[in-house]
From TrEMBL:
Name by which UniProt lists this protein: DUF72 domain-containing protein
SUPFAM superfamilies cross-referenced by the UniProt entry: TM1631-like (SSF117396)
Entry-linked InterPro entries: DUF72, UPF0759_sf
Lineage: superkingdom: Bacteria
Organism: Pelomonas nitida
Length: 328
């Protein structure tokens, strides 16, 4: 069973990138986790994870191209995010290449292209320049995201996430229109054979019973976004309760202490992302409780964590797994 889940030998090598030897306590912890639980990091290309995930030192570009098999050999890493498609839609062949590098039971969480999730067309520095005519356009979402992901990922598909960027003031003033656009897009998209479609937001104005009703009607899930732009986890739970039962999708993006625009501050403080410098046991404990309840009801949980959540995503995954399935 363990070989099926974790790909066999813990020191698997691909083009010179080997996995760090699995710690016996991680192997034992992984064995206590339900197969419904898929924990992972937001991506996999960090040289500073040497000794945690990688055996030896490798460049970011080498890890991006060839590090996924070694990442997926780690006993606790049963999922990973693919965020780069947010900036450029990925082809089915690119998704397939990723799917072919991971073991049975592994799942991907993928962000939809900003082409359909951002109401503004932005410059290279992120400034909104003009309205995006393809915002929440179903045909564009299908062609640029849904069809390639379904075709390429197959059974490794975990969650396809429409992370809706912050809305400009004019759209925030007319949320009824935004709910109608989102509802129409989701209704037009086919459901995946495995995994789920999910919606993550960056404006608290979305967090109303209308969103729960919309998601329930379309069969999509709410993606819990742990980010300072949104209320804390406890205040997002009513949406999960309104959609129960069903799979859980969580993206733990940024520690609240850095504020809504604190990505650069977090990156500067955390350096190579090899240490947990800002542990957040309250969030981790509440999240563990929700994961246990979800998996205990026979539902899948797809959880990815950024380095900017606590300082080192692999260490956050380990600490969360320990909270979900304590020893003894």
């Amino acid at each position: 069973m363990q070989d099926e889940l974790f790909g066999g030998a813990p020191q698997k090598r691909t083009r010179g990138i080997g996995a760090a030897p699995a710690l016996p306590e991680d192997v034992a912890l992984a064995a206590r986790l339900s197969p419904h639980i898929h924990l992972g990091t937001s991506t996999w290309s960090y040289p500073g994870w040497e000794g945690l995930v990688w055996a030896g030192r490798h460049s970011e570009s080498a890890l991006s191209k060839n590090g996924l098999p070694a990442y997926a050999a780690h006993p606790l890493l049963r999922a990973v995010g693919i965020d780069r498609g947010f900036y450029r839609p990925l082809a089915a062949s690119e998704f397939q290449r990723h799917a072919e590098q991971v073991p049975q039971g592994f799942r991907f969480t993928v962000k939809a292209p900003s082409l359909v999730t951002d109401a503004l067309l932005r410059s290279d520095d992120g400034r909104g320049q003009q309205p995006n005519p393809l915002f929440l356009d179903a045909a564009t979402a299908l062609q640029s995201f849904i069809e390639p992901a379904y075709e390429g990922l197959g059974a490794t598909l975990g969650a396809l996430v429409f992370q809706l960027s912050p809305l400009p003031g004019g759209r925030l003033a007319d949320m009824t229109q935004q709910f109608d656009l989102l509802h129409a897009m989701l209704l037009a998209l086919p459901r995946p054979a495995t995994g789920v479609l999910a919606v993550e937001v960056r404006d608290a104005a979305w967090l109303t019973p209308d969103l729960a009703a919309l998601l329930r009607d379309t069969g999509a899930r709410y993606c819990v976004g742990l980010h300072p732009k949104l209320p804390p986890l406890a205040e997002q739970l009513p949406l999960l309760r309104a959609l129960w039962p069903g799979p859980l999708v969580v993206r733990w993006n940024l520690n609240r202490l850095h504020g809504a625009y604190g990505y650069e501050a977090a990156e500067s403080k955390y350096g190579e992302f090899s240490e947990m410098l800002d542990p957040d046991p309250d969030t981790r404990g509440e999240l563990a409780r929700i994961i246990r309840g979800t998996a205990g009801a026979g539902q899948d949980a797809f959880v990815t964590i950024s380095n900017k959540a606590e300082g080192s995503a692999p260490l956050s995954v380990r600490a969360l797994a320990q909270a979900v399935a304590p020893a003894g």
